[in-house]
Design a protein that fits this description.
single chain; alpha/beta; Rossmann fold; Hect, E3 ligase catalytic domain fold; five-stranded parallel sheet; five-stranded mixed sheet; 17% strand; flat
């Protein structure tokens, strides 16, 4: 028998090509200007590892994914995001890093990265640490290492916070965006007299007007905007009209009186004051008076959104009201309608739109982790705990009758046909959460709410897209009366001693009317409870319930028809 040549037996099978991308990162910018820096050293080590795997089909991709001077505590890194995008397009099979903490120092963030890798069938390799993430033991070892890396990062952050607190206690300026009127000078601040004069004018104007909203409007009418300034990195900002949040923060900032704030304490600063102590105390007293006392007693008739709401044409919507039968109805009306100069404006029920805005802004604070991501915050476990407590308090205040700091949070509201856009000032959110010292520009958040206008009798109502009424829960008296009447009639019929025709004659009604009323006696307990509490679908009224063809027997179908938010379930 003829033997097969040995060369054929040793012939290698086709090796699958594996495209390897090298990712490098360095937390600080120190040394990056050198010809051969830490990023180069990391890439060289990773490239050598890829070369050692050439027999397995590994090929080094030429693209450089280098993040220099960026913390591993965030995923918002340009090179990392570019690499993830290329991976999603199927251009990368494996990511090679020098150490796991180069990829991320956060266990939470790393879990998200592993999910992103798994979705596209990619994996990662650490050159100096051996991991096999396809096994449970490998994942356990990896999580243990990441836990220690995160612990080291948190301890470092605690040291930085302690040093920051000690430095501020000595009156030092520890960086960040300097308040208007100052510029950094080492570890202190010096006055920019041109801007300081504007700050003094703002304080004096507030004492005359006694209202931040009126102050903002006066500055806007006078054409006075925030001066254009430039950060140490060369980013320009300013040049826009002062928002109420900016003015409120300026009036409350103790730096202007020569103090350095840190959390809930202030310390004597090393910088000169712009505002005299007497004026400062008078402003703080007036701000406190407008938060408590007389103004709060007038709260039921306060128009929360006055000065913030504009219509589709950009016209301001003014607060107005009408009185009928000793009932006061508040509205927000476009200027053109109010002055009679046009027919294209809008008229919105004030209480209901205020309630809708309060609820949707409050929902931002229901998920502190998502809010931190939207505000581009570098979040740590300690800060997350602090934010969680603060978010709960703020959400509760916003949902309250007064609306809390709603008007300070909102930058602008734009009402269009069927849609309301709520622009939330990100910088003011940071201030409320106590994280103003974090770097980076804070984005403006936009919340869009779909709604429609309907009428119940003579009353205009605002109904949101899920059927929720745009106001606090308030029972519809006619609808509640219909349910009570239906139960009463059914109790009479259920005895078996009377029929519908006889009952109708005794009640002075016709058979058809009694039959239609009786339908409401067969509503589910959930729907009945919602009607009694005023939480039913905004389109459900006594009239619609009487006129509809029938009420479905299954309670699930009733919920879809009569309860907000159930139609899509």
């Amino acid at each position: 028998m003829k033997r097969k040549p040995a060369a054929d037996a040793a012939m290698p099978a086709t090796v699958r090509k594996i495209r390897a991308a090298v990712y490098t990162r360095k937390s600080s910018e120190e040394g990056l200007e050198q010809d051969f820096n830490s990023l180069d050293a990391q890439r060289e080590a990773c490239a050598a590892y890829v070369l050692s795997q050439a027999s397995e089909g590994w090929q080094l991709l030429p693209d450089h994914y280098d993040d220099g001077g960026i913390s591993g505590g965030t995923l918002e890194r340009p090179a990392l995001q570019r690499m993830l995008a290329d991976m999603a397009k199927g251009r990368i099979d494996v990511v090679v890093v020098y150490k796991v903490d180069r990829l991320s120092r956060s266990l939470f963030d790393f879990a998200k990265l592993v999910e992103a890798f798994d979705r596209v069938g990619a994996s990662f390799v650490s050159v100096t640490q051996s991991f096999n993430t396809t096994t449970s033991m490998g994942r356990l070892t990896l999580n243990m290492l990441l836990s220690f890396a995160q612990f080291e990062r948190e301890v470092t952050a605690e040291r930085i916070r302690d040093k920051l607190a000690a430095s501020k206690a000595k009156g030092m300026w520890m960086g960040g965006t300097p308040p208007l009127g100052y510029k950094p000078d080492g570890r202190t601040l010096t006055i920019v007299e041109e801007h300081a004069a504007l700050v003094r004018d703002i304080y004096r104007s507030y004492l005359q007007l006694g209202n931040v909203r009126l102050l903002a409007e006066q500055l806007k009418v006078a054409g006075i905007a925030a001066p254009c300034r430039t950060t140490s990195t060369g980013r320009a900002y300013g040049g826009k009209p002062f928002s109420r949040g900016q003015l409120y923060f300026m009036l409350k900032n103790p730096i202007y009186v020569g103090e350095i704030p840190h959390r809930d304490k202030t310390y004597p600063g090393n910088h000169p004051a712009i505002i005299e102590r007497a004026m400062w105390d008078e402003v703080q007293q007036k701000l406190a008076d407008h938060t408590q006392g007389i103004e709060r007693a007038r709260l039921p008739h306060r128009s929360l959104l006055a000065g913030l709401l504009i219509d589709a044409a950009g016209e301001p919507m003014s607060a107005t009201h009408a009185t009928k039968n000793n009932q006061r109805y508040r509205y927000y009306v476009s200027r053109s309608l109010q002055k009679g100069t046009g027919d294209d404006g809008m008229r919105l029920p004030a209480r209901e739109i205020e309630s809708a805005v309060k609820e949707h802004v409050a929902r931002l604070f229901d998920d502190p982790l998502l809010l931190a991501s939207q505000l581009a915050l570098d979040i740590s476990p300690n800060l997350l705990r602090q934010m969680t407590d603060r978010c709960g308090t703020i959400a509760h205040e916003l949902r309250g009758r007064s609306g809390g700091r709603l008007t300070d949070i909102i930058a602008r509201l734009r009402a269009r046909e069927g849609k309301l856009a709520i622009e939330v000032a990100g910088d003011r959110l940071r201030e409320l959460l106590g994280v103003t010292e974090q770097p980076g520009e804070c984005p403006t958040l936009v919340i869009e709410v779909d709604f429609r206008l309907t009428r119940t009798g003579r009353t205009m109502r605002l109904v949101q897209s899920d059927g929720s009424p745009g106001s606090e829960a308030k029972p519809n008296e006619a609808l509640v009366g219909l349910v009570v009447e239906a139960r009463r009639l059914w109790n009479l019929l259920s005895t078996g001693d009377i029929d519908i025709a006889t009952l109708a004659r005794e009640e002075g009604r016709n058979d058809s009317y009694v039959t239609r009323i009786l339908r409401a006696a067969f509503l589910s307990p959930e729907v009945t409870d919602a009607i009694l509490a005023g939480r039913q679908h905004g389109a459900l009224t006594a009239r619609t319930l009487r006129e509809m063809g029938g009420i479905p027997t299954p309670w699930e179908e009733q919920a879809k028809l009569f309860l907000p938010g159930h139609a899509s379930r």
